[in-house]
Every structure is written in C-alpha cells, then in structure tokens.
Amino acid sequence: MKKLALATITATATLALAACGSATDASEDAMADNVEMPADDAMTDTPAPVMDDAASLDAEEVEMDAMEAAETAEAMVNEDVEAAIGDAEAEME
Fold first, then answer.
1. What is the H or E stretch that residue 77 is in?
2. CA–CA separation, 81 vs 75, rounded Å?
3. Looking at residue 25, what is its pLDDT?
4. What's residue 35's pLDDT?
5. Where are the alpha helices (DSSP H) in 21-58?
6. What is the DSSP letter of 16?
7. pLDDT at position 41, please?
C-alpha cells in the first residue's frame, strides 16, 4: 500500500512540475548568424600571420630537446621502479 501511495505522489509531483514549465523554443534565439557575423567582422582588418624565424628551432635543437625529454622520462620511470621494488621488498619482510 505504501508503494502505491509513493508512486501516486511521485507521478502527481512529476505532472505538476511539467505543467509549470513553458514551451518556448530557445533554438530560434541562438541563430548561427547572430554569433558568427560579429566574429567575421572583427577579423576583417587584421594582418596576415607572418613566420617568425627567431621562434623556430633547427633540427639539432629539436633533437636535443627530444633527447633531454627522453632522459628525464627514463629517470622518472627508474625512480618509480626502484620505489616499487623497495616497497615490495619491505612488504616481504
């Protein structure tokens, strides 16, 4: 009996909340033309992008950066492995 009363109250509350809502369609208010046109207008007077030679790296610098990153990652992994081995040995004692 309690389950039937609970189901009835839930259904009534759901219908009451549904009746309070409004049926306006928000998709008409947010048309793509309203959003995209100001952005296109803002970009009309900007200059074209230019390549900055000082910001670019040559192949040797890229290789050195990659090697340093690999060495750092290897050191971190080795530290984690050593810590895990130490923890396992301590747990076995």
1. helix 59-92
2. 10
3. 62
4. 54
5. 32-42
6. H
7. 73
State both tokens at 68: 């340093």
Task: Check the CA dihedral 66-69-74-77 and report its sign.
Answer: negative
Q: CA–CA separation, 71 vs 73, rounded Å?
A: 5
Cα–Cα distance for residue pair 32/56, rounded to 1 Å: 37
The confidence score (pLDDT) of residue 54 equals 74
Distance, CA of 58 to CA of 51 (rounded, Å): 14
Q: What pLDDT does residue 50 have?
A: 82
CB of 14 closer than 8 Å to CB of 21: no
Q: What letter does residue 48 receive in the DSSP assignment?
A: P
**Cβ 65 vs Cβ 57: under 8 Å:** yes
